[in-house]
Amino acid sequence: MEPFKIHILGCGSALPTLRHSASSQVVEMRGKYFMIDCGEGTQVQLRRSRISFTKINSVFISHLHGDHCLGLIGMISTFGMLGRTSPFHVYAPIEFESLFYRQLELFCHGLDFDVTFHGVDTTGNKVVFEDRSLTVETIPLDHRIACCGYLFREKPTRRHILRDMIDCYEIPVSQINNIKNGADWVTPNGDIVPNSRLTREPDPPRSYAYCSDTRYISTLHRLVKGVDLLYHESTYGNDSIERAKLYYHSTATQAAAVARDAGVGKLLLGHYSARYEDENVLLDEAKAIFPQSYLSEEGMIFDVK
Question: Record-annotated residues binding Zn(2+) 1 (predicted)?
Answer without folding.
Answer: 63, 65, 143, 213
